[in-house]
Amino acid sequence: MRTSWAAGAAALLLLAVASCGVPNDDQVRTVDPSEVPYHLLEDVEEGASSATSGLAGPRLYWVDAEDRLVGRPAASFCAKTLRGVARNILGQLGDGPSARDLGSGLGTALPPDRWLKLVAITDRTAHLRISSDDTIATNRVVLATAQTVLSLTSIPGVDQVEMEYDAGPLQVPRSSGELADGPLRYDDYRSLLADSDDPAEQPKDELLRRGDLCPG
Question: What is the end-to-end Cα distance of the chain in Å, rounded?
Answer without folding.
Answer: 13
